[in-house]
Design brief:
6-stranded parallel β-sheet, alpha/beta, elongated
Length: 231
């Protein structure tokens, strides 16, 4: 039986925005009316952990009520013909809700909590809130399982290895402005076709292997999936 070709997807905030979730940074530099520096950095947690906790509790509730859109579902449809791995910068679980089999979260997951004293202790949340006073098994405060500015992205090495195995690479809903995640687009092997689905077209050096689809995911990704399935 012939093995499926490897299709790797790098997804960003744009695909989640089409399901009603706010993008990380609006044109005014704020996220849901908060300064990024006040809610999405390690220093912010030290200064005011209760504020950070409340911010992510609100984000978590929004994400849990959101539903996957046609773009998410198009990636699931591709599994009929391809071995698909989704590498996402998003912290929601919309790819999983849609039915994607393999999803790697670069920047963490809202649906999980992590120990402040032992980062290896990560828990699936049974509620939509983490409270100050909620402790891990070692007695340390729980925090959102999110990679903040100033913190390492622990899954990057795995993501690079997956990217280098790609036979087809899709970028969807990201401006490729946030590093190190954006560097994955440059780790794709030479000769491997890259499809960029986004209303804006980010700069990529290897344009000879890049096809730009200047549409949102709900239309551009659906059309691309149909083409790849028919190929």
């Amino acid at each position: 039986m012939e093995s499926k070709r490897k299709l790797v997807v790098l997804s960003g905030a744009g695909i989640s925005a089409e399901s009603g979730l706010a993008t990380f940074r609006d044109s005014n530099g704020l996220w849901e009316n908060y300064r990024i520096e006040d809610v999405a950095t390690a220093d912010a947690w030290v200064r005011n952990p209760a504020l950070v906790q409340d911010f992510y509790n609100k984000r978590r509730k929004q994400a849990l009520s959101a539903q996957p859109n046609a773009g998410h579902k198009a990636l699931v449809a591709l599994e009929a013909k391809y071995d698909v791995t989704v590498i996402t910068q998003n912290v929601d679980n919309l790819h999983e809700k849609a039915g994607s089999s393999t999803v790697l979260h670069l920047h963490g997951e809202l649906a999980k909590a992590r120990s402040t004293g032992d980062p290896s202790l990560v828990y699936e949340l049974e509620t939509d809130e983490i409270q100050m006073g909620d402790l891990c098994e070692k007695g340390h405060q729980l925090r959102p399982h999110i990679v903040w500015f100033g913190e390492e992205v622990p899954m990057m090495e795995v993501a690079y290895e997956i990217t280098q195995q790609a036979d087809v690479f899709i970028v969807v809903g990201t401006s490729l402005a946030v590093y190190p995640a954006a560097g994955l687009a440059y780790a794709v092997p030479r000769g491997v076709p890259i499809f960029v689905v986004d209303p804006n077209t980010p700069e990529l050096r290897h344009k000879d292997q890049v096809t730009f689809i200047a549409e949102p995911a709900t239309t551009g990704l659906v059309r691309l999936a149909e083409q790849l399935l028919a190929a």
